[in-house]
From TrEMBL:
InterPro entries tied to this protein: Aminotrans_3, PyrdxlP-dep_Trfase, PyrdxlP-dep_Trfase_major, PyrdxlP-dep_Trfase_small
Catalytic activity, EC: 2.6.1.44
Subunit (UniProt): Homotetramer.
Official protein name in the record: alanine--glyoxylate transaminase
Class in the EC hierarchy, top level: transferase
CDD domains reported in the protein's UniProt record: OAT_like
Protein family (similarity comment): Belongs to the class-III pyridoxal-phosphate-dependent aminotransferase family.
GO molecular function, one term: alanine-glyoxylate transaminase activity
Cofactor(s) the protein requires to work: pyridoxal 5'-phosphate
Keywords annotated in UniProt: Aminotransferase, Pyridoxal phosphate, Transferase
Source organism of the structure: Streptomyces beijiangensis
C-alpha cells in the first residue's frame, strides 16, 4: 500500500520534493505526541512540533474550534470584517513586544517573509537585504533569494540584492574559535565593513536560532549589537520567528528576546505551529512600516476564520498550560540526558539548543568533518525504534533536529532519549 503510494508520489510530484526515509511513511492519524502510519505502527513524534503541530496532535480544543467555525462559515477573509482574525491579531500584537503593532496574516512562513520583504523594500526604497549565512527563510522567489543555506536555495536569480552577514552559526566559520564577546565584536566589525561598501540597505532578516540550518544560535546579545549599527543606518531588523516563536525556546516567548537589550525588532514573522497544523503565517510590524504600502494588498486565505479559530484555541491552550515553561523544564532535562548519551559517542560533536529545540551534530570520529551518512543512518534507526526526528545543517545535513510538540512529558522525553541512545550506538 505504502510502496504503491510512494510510486504514485514519484510519478506525479516534483523530483525535488524529498521525502524522509528509504521507505517513506504515510501518517494517517495522531494523538498527543504520537502519530500512526498506514501500517498501524505508532511513533513518538520528536519533530512534528516544528513541522506544524506545535502543541499536540489532535488537540481537542483546536479540533472543536475548527469544526465549529467550519460548520458556521468558511469564507475569504480580508474584504469583510472577520471576528476571529481581529481577535487573534489583537492577541498577537499584544504578545509581540512591538509598539503600535499591526498584524497581517498569510498562509505560510514563506509568504510571511515575502510580505516582510515587500514592506521593508517599499519602506526603505531599496532592494538590498542583509541576511545571515546558513539561514532559511522559505521557498518563494524572493525568500530563496535571501536564504543563505544554499542547499535550500535552488536559484540565484533573485530580484533582491542580498548581502550575507556572519554570526548565525556559533560553532563553525572563521570566528568559531573566539569567546562570545569577541565573536560578537568580530561579527559587528564584519557588518560595519559590509555597510561601508554599500548604501541604503532595506533590512536585516535573521532567525534568532537557525532552524533548517541545524538549530544553531549566536551568543545572546548579537542582535542587540547589530541593532546599534542598523539604527545608525536606518536599516530595519526583521526577526524570523517561524521556528523560535511561541515559547519553544523555553526561556523566551520569542527568539529575539534572548537579545532583549536591543528592544523588539521592527518586524517579526511567524507561521507553522500557531495553527497547530492549520496553515497560518503572518507579519507583525510597527504601524509606520506596515502602513507604508500605497496600493491594496490582500490575502484571500490569510486570516481565514477557520485557521484563525484554530490559532485562537491553540494560543489560549499554550498560554493557559504554560507550555513555554514546559519547554524549558522538559527541554532542559532532555538536553542534559542527550549530552550524557553524546559523551559516550565519538560521533557527536555537540548537543545544542534551547527548550524543545535541540540539535545533535554528528561528525566523523576524531575530526570536525560533517557526517551526513551517520545522520541519515540514525534517522532510519530511530524510526525503526518508533521515534520520528528531523535532520538539518549547512551544506552537509549532519545535525539531528529534535522539536517535539510543546506538551511533551518527562516520561516521553526519557522514552525518546532511550531510542536515540540505541540508534546512535547501533549505527555509529
Ligand atoms: N522561516 C523559517 C525560519 C522556516 O524554518 C521556514 C520553514 N521551514 C520558513 C520560514 C518557511 O515557512 P513555510 O514552510 O510555512 O513556508
Amino acid at each position: 500500500m505504502t510502496d504503491q503510494l510512494h510510486n504514485r508520489h514519484k510519478a506525479v510530484l516534483p523530483d525535488w520534493l524529498a521525502l524522509y526515509y528509504g521507505r517513506p511513511i504515510e501518517i494517517t492519524h495522531g494523538e498527543g505526541r504520537h502519530v500512526w502510519d498506514a501500517e498501524g505502527r505508532k511513533y513518538l513524534d520528536f519533530f512534528g512540533g516544528i513541522l506544524t503541530t506545535m502543541t499536540a496532535h489532535a488537540l481537542p480544543e483546536v479540533t472543536k474550534a475548527v469544526a465549529e467555525q467550519a460548520g458556521r462559515i468558511i469564507h475569504s477573509s480580508t474584504l469583510y470584517l472577520n471576528r476571529p482574525m481581529v481577535e487573534l491579531a489583537e492577541r498577537i500584537a499584544a504578545l509581540s513586544g512591538i509598539p503600535d503593532a499591526r498584524v497581517f496574516f498569510t498562509t505560510s512562513g514563506t509568504e510571511a517573509n515575502d510580505t516582510a520583504l515587500l514592506l521593508a523594500t517599499a519602506y526603505r526604497g531599496s532592494n538590498q537585504i542583509l541576511a545571515m549565512r546558513n539561514s532559511y527563510h522559505g521557498r518563494s522567489f524572493t525568500t530563496v533569494g535571501i536564504t543563505g543555506n544554499k542547499g535550500w536555495s535552488p536559484t540565484s536569480l533573485s530580484p533582491l540584492q542580498t548581502l550575507y552577514v556572519h554570526g548565525g552559526v556559533r560553532s563553525r566559520g572563521p570566528y568559531a574559535h573566539l569567546a562570545d564577546a569577541e565573536f560578537i565584536a568580530a561579527c559587528v566589525a564584519d557588518l560595519e565593513d559590509l555597510l561601508g561598501h554599500t548604501r541604503d540597505v532595506a533590512a536585516l532578516i535573521a532567525e534568532p536560532i537557525q532552524g533548517v540550518g541545524g538549530f544553531t544560535a549566536p551568543p545572546d546579545g548579537l542582535y542587540a549589537a547589530f541593532r546599534e549599527v542598523l539604527d545608525r543606518h536606518g536599516i530595519l531588523w526583521v526577526s524570523d520567528e517561524v521556528q523560535t516563536g511561541w515559547g519553544r525556546t523555553g526561556d523566551h516567548f520569542w527568539g529575539w528576546q534572548a537579545h532583549a537589550s536591543s528592544g523588539p525588532p521592527d518586524m517579526l514573522t511567524f507561521a507553522k505551529g500557531i495553527g497547530n497544523g492549520m496553515s497560518i503565517g503572518g507579519v507583525v510590524a510597527r504601524a509606520e512600516v506596515m502602513n507604508c504600502l500605497d496600493a491594496n494588498s490582500i490575502s484571500t486565505f490569510g486570516g481565514s476564520p477557520v485557521t484563525m479559530s484554530a490559532g485562537l484555541a491553540n494560543l489560549t491552550y499554550l498560554l493557559e498550560h504554560d507550555l513555554q515553561g514546559n519547554a524549558r523544564r522538559v527541554g532542559g532535562l532532555l538536553t542534559e540526558r542527550l549530552r550524557a548519551i553524546a559523551a559516550q559517542s565519538p560521533f557527536v560533536r555537540e548537543v545544542r539548543g534551547r527548550g524543545l529545540m535541540i540539535g545533535i551534530e554528528l561528525v566523523k570520529p576524531g575530526t570536525d568533518e560533517a557526517n551526513p551518512a551517520a545522520a541519515a543512518a540514525v534517522l532510519e534507526a530511530a524510526r525503526e525504534g518508533g521515534l520520528l526526528i528531523g535532520k538539518g545543517g549547512g551544506h552537509d545535513t549532519s545535525v539531528l533536529r529534535i522539536a517535539p510538540p510543546l506538551t511533551l512529558t518527562v516520561a516521553e522525553a526519557e522514552e525518546g532519549a532511550a531510542v536515540l541512545e540505541n540508534a546512535l550506538r547501533t549505527v555509529c
